[in-house]
Design a protein that fits this description.
The protein is of the alpha/beta class and 601 residues long. The chain contains 23 helices and 20 strands. Strand 7, helix 7 and strand 8 form a beta-alpha-beta unit. Helix 16 packs across helix 17.
């Protein structure tokens, strides 16, 4: 789709408010940028405008240039990074190259993916005041702005709390407040919800929509969260290979499923599910098919009224092929597990859980529900306050952490933090070398692991020269070299695009089919169908749901108790009798019920 200066209003921008200058608030004129030493541009001839008061969603595959685009909005690119820059960026009439970043910071607030990277103060109010103090804003004015910003994001009354004691959603709201306190006209957010649970993510989107509607705040957000962007964005930009490949209202961009698949972008779940129904032709005789695919759940529920299903899927409901592991033996077990941290926080409250050998188990729950604390007990990084933890029937207290490494492999959310050797081969063999294994054994194990992860060609490369997805493969290869039978993955798809996420899950499924026990912790429920055999739901340090994936997704009490929202297809099916009996898990599951096959990016 050709680029266009598409903003609300006939003249391409919103009407003037508060006596502010007429014209677009943000303008990119033929902008190209190449990082120092890079062999291709991160941005390539971008030309567009953004009007005052717009909410613009920025989508695209990993490495497409979304972050660079965001950084160009406040002059960090190129002022901080250097490199080759062509064209111009103007923010409220100011040239983003010639204007100091300290001045641009008063117009453009920036919120990054991980709020921990931005928070430096020891109190909530101190964090919001920090930039204002550096800009020498008078103390009374600082107090006024801090109060207004905290009230705007719903953190009034939390002024003296330490940011470390806030939830993930609260930390991200604190970052937004710090940006608002600068009296920013624009707030730019780069994947602000990728590390948040669904409830915390919804909080962030709700706050942004509120600030936009009530204060006219201009919002530019790069995100893989297509469902949420479809709900709040006025316009969506698709950036791919540094170019704007498409732009338009969410109803147009997110409905173009073939184009999105070509650029490795996941459309909202409901778009693909509705596309399945349209392709199947499951409509009442004489009814016209909808002219466009709905991109929100509300639109889908309205469309189904005009496009009723003519067939029942109950007879086509699949029999879940969950493997019988009743006689497989026990891989992990906890009985009456309680853990109380030194500050008195009761993180686990009597957890009972058994994981069978060869099982593929998913664990979900809000931030702070106890997932990480439970995993740390599996790894013997924490000791129970009460209760027992067993690995293959043996009490974990009998093991050293180094001994457990041979039985349990762990891949953290930030896998790059586990990489520190200067070649891939050294990284994969590092733990074995620390165990004083013979060199021949190490070389053989490294060779097997690299082959299993399709990394043999990268053996002599520096791990940090690889993509994020390939670095994850390096960490998995290093874990596999120890030949553990149990593998635990904590949010492995964070920051990955659709294709990257599916590639990781395909990898985990292959490991499971090799006989490995796989435990997956994730916030992304829509990714689980087709992979996880069983799902455990945690809330408040307890297990509130446990069963086959389909049963748990459709167990409203368990999902509601944990504050979780099922994928859009599940919620849609619950309002459509023809789908409700069949209980589809997602678009691919629905397609399988109808004997169809969906193409994935």
């Amino acid at each position: 789709m050709p680029q266009a200066n598409t903003a609300p209003g006939e003249d391409g921008h919103l009407p003037i408010r508060d006596g502010r200058p007429e014209g677009p608030l943000i303008r990119f004129d033929n902008v190209s940028y190449r990082y120092p030493g890079a062999d291709r541009p991160a941005l390539d001839k971008i030309g567009l405008t953004i009007g005052r008061g717009e909410i613009v969603g920025v989508i695209g595959p990993t490495g497409a240039g979304k972050t660079t685009f965001c950084l160009a909005l406040n002059g960090i690119v190129p002022q901080f990074f250097g490199g080759e820059f062509h064209g111009s960026v103007h923010i409220a009439g100011l040239d983003a190259i010639e204007t100091p970043t300290s001045r641009l910071a008063q117009l453009v607030g920036m919120v990054f993916e991980d709020p921990e990277t931005q928070i430096t103060a020891t109190t909530v109010e101190g964090e919001v005041a920090f930039a204002l103090e550096n800009l020498k804003v008078p103390t009374p004015e600082i107090a006024r702005r801090v109060g207004e910003a905290l009230r705007a994001v719903g953190l009034a009354g939390q002024e003296t709390r330490h940011p470390a004691n806030l939830s993930g959603g609260q930390k991200q709201r604190l970052s937004i407040a710090a940006a608002l306190a600068l009296s920013s006209d624009i707030i730019v957010l780069d994947e602000p919800t990728s590390q948040l649970d669904p409830v915390a993510s919804a909080e962030v989107f709700a706050i942004l929509l509120k600030l936009n509607r009530e204060n006219g705040l201009t919002v530019v957000m790069a995100s893989h969260a297509s469902e949420e962007l479809a709900e709040i964005a006025d316009r969506v930009l698709l950036i791919s290979d540094g170019k704007v490949a498409a732009e338009g209202p969410p109803e147009t961009v997110f409905a173009a499923t073939e184009m999105l698949a070509e650029h490795r972008v996941r459309p909202p779940d409901i778009v693909r599910s509705f596309e399945v129904l349209v392709r199947d032709g499951s409509s009442a005789p004489g009814r016209r098919k909808p002219s466009a695919l709905p991109v929100t759940l509300e639109a889908a529920e309205s469309a189904i009224g005009a496009y009723p299903l003519a067939v029942s899927l109950s007879a086509a409901a699949p029999v879940d092929t969950r493997r019988d592991v009743s006689k497989a033996g026990v891989a992990l077990a906890v009985d009456g597990l309680i853990h109380i941290y030194p500050d008195g926080t009761e993180a686990l409250r009597g957890v009972d859980l058994t994981v069978a050998n060869g099982e593929f188990l998913g664990i979900v729950g809000r931030n702070g529900s106890g997932k990480s604390t439970l995993v740390r007990h599996f790894l013997h990084l924490l000791s129970p306050s009460s209760g027992t933890v067993r690995v293959a029937g043996d009490d974990i207290s009998e093991f050293k952490v180094s001994d457990l490494a041979r039985r349990i492999g762990y891949v953290s959310q930030n896998a790059h933090a586990q990489v520190f050797c200067d070649t891939v081969a050294k990284e994969v063999g590092f733990a074995l070398s620390m165990m004083k294994r013979p060199k021949a054994d190490i070389d053989a194990a490294v060779s097997r692991s690299l082959a299993a992860m399709d990394l043999a060609q990268a053996a002599d490369q520096h791990p940090m020269s690889l993509s994020r997805g390939d670095r994850l493969r390096v960490v998995i290869a290093a874990v596999l070299a120890l030949e553990p039978q149990i593998l635990i993955f904590d949010e492995p798809t964070t920051g990955q695009d659709w294709r990257g996420s599916l590639a990781i899950l395909d990898m985990l499924r292959a490991l499971n089919r090799m006989g490995k026990t796989v435990v997956l912790i994730t916030h992304h429920l829509y990714l689980l169908p087709g992979y996880v055999d069983r799902l455990v739901v945690m809330d408040g340090g307890r297990i509130v749901g446990d069963g086959a994936l389909r049963d748990v997704f459709y167990d409203n009490s368990a999902m509601a108790a944990a504050g979780l929202v099922p994928p859009q297809t599940v919620r849609f099916a619950e309002h459509v009798p023809a789908l409700g009996v069949a209980r589809p898990l997602g678009p691919d599951d629905l397609a399988a019920m109808l004997g169809l096959r969906l193409e994935v990016a």
